Amino acid sequence: MKKRHVPVLGEGSERDHSEDGMVTVEIAIGLAALVFVLTVALMALGAAQSRAVLCEEVRVAARSHSIGGSPGGGVEGVAGSTMAVIQGPGSFRVVGTRPAASLAGWNLGTLRCEIAGIPESGLSWLSSGGGS
């Protein structure tokens, strides 16, 4: 019996050699895209968490201002965050801002939270019998 030679892939076959390594390239591109999407998702999650912390700081500052304290009283601000109190007729607003997280020099913008309130001194009618 005569042995038949079976060509090994790439040896004497009619395969197009221009596709060599395409699977490796596709995996590399897919992996880079996956890393990019995960990075963006984690940055968005971090920004949401930072905004929640900022709004808590603003809430504490508004409560402090409402009872007659300083707007920043009792607030341990994170570096870079600013608080401003805007007085109005019989009410006030506390506005807090903080730069969002950045990655490799990409700044995601500025986080902002605003809470309106009424000073407790303006509610004296409540303790004097309901205003009637």
Query: What is the general shape?
Result: rod-shaped
Strand content: 15-25%
The biggest sheet amounts to: 3 strands, antiparallel
Q: What is the terminal separation in angstroms?
A: 117 Å
Radius of gyration over alpha carbons? 31 Å
Provide the structure class. Answer: alpha+beta
Provide the succession of SSEs: HEEEEEH
How much helical structure, as a percent, in the residues?
25-40%
Based on the model shown, name its key terms.
two-stranded antiparallel ribbon; alpha+beta; 37% helix; single chain; 2 helices; three-stranded antiparallel sheet; 132 residues; 5 strands
Structure description:
This protein has 132 residues and is α+β, with helices and mostly antiparallel strands. 37% of the residues lie in helices and 21% in strands. The protein contains 2 helices and 5 strands, in the order H-E-E-E-E-E-H. It has helices at residues 22-66, 124-127; strands at 82-88, 91-99, 102-103, 106-107, 110-117. The protein has a 3-stranded antiparallel sheet, with helices on one face. Strands 3-4 form a two-stranded antiparallel ribbon. Strand 3 and strand 4 (106-107) form a beta hairpin. The chain starts with 21 loop residues before the first helix and ends in a 5-residue tail after the last helix.
Short description:
The protein is α+β, with helices and mostly antiparallel strands and 132 residues long.
